[in-house]
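Our collaborator T.R. sent over the components below with a one-line note: 'Predict the complex.' Nothing else. No constraints on interfaces, no templates requested, no preferences about which chain binds where. So this is a plain run: every listed entity goes in together, and whatever single assembly comes back becomes the starting point for the next discussion.
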Amino acid sequence: EVQLAQSGAEVRKPGESLTISCQGSGYTFTNNWIAWLRQTPERGLEWMGNVYPDDSDTRYSPSFRGRVTFSADKSISTAYLQWSSLQASDTAMYYCARRTVVALIEYFDYWGQGTLVTVSS
Amino acid sequence: AIQMTQSPSSLSVSVGDRVTITCRASQAIRNDLSWLQQKPGKAPKLLIYGASTLQSGVPSRFSGSGSGTAFTLTISSLQPEDVATYYCLQDYNLWTFGQGTKVEI
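Returned assembly:
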């Protein structure tokens, strides 16, 4: 069974750093890109970007480039989302999702359970 | 950036009703569209991809249609467990979600 297990909820102060994780199981982790997505009541669901676990290649949404960093450790089937300096506006639920491509059709077929990040002084 | 506009933003229906949700793209996106369902407190779940292909395990009362700029998600006979927010998602150029349609009974 394909599963993406995300790390637990985090509370940080503005300016602090943070890394959250997404561990895949039940499939060959290096065969699929992992997407990171943000959800807030104000802006809804937003695609942040993708990381390819096999070589750590990355694609960033223009809205998030320079604000976050994606990485992956294929030896432990885990992808990461990192902030170097959090802002209150980073308060959100963050999801990872597996990107699958079949006959040029793409979709996010499996999702992690979400990691709630709260940034407050 | 491609904008996705869903309508309606919410609807209240009865069990057994036929439900139709529309998603319009700001430019043609072929059939590069999926539909997701999100129940309260849960992660989104893929229902349909490629505009009309039902994801494995999804009940056949869900169907999708459309191409280009106009797309539709239909629930043929709403069940209590279908109470959720539904999102369209385009992958023609990067990825953009619609704002969601909340379905209540």
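Summary for T.R.: The first strand of chain B starts at residue 4 and ends at 7.
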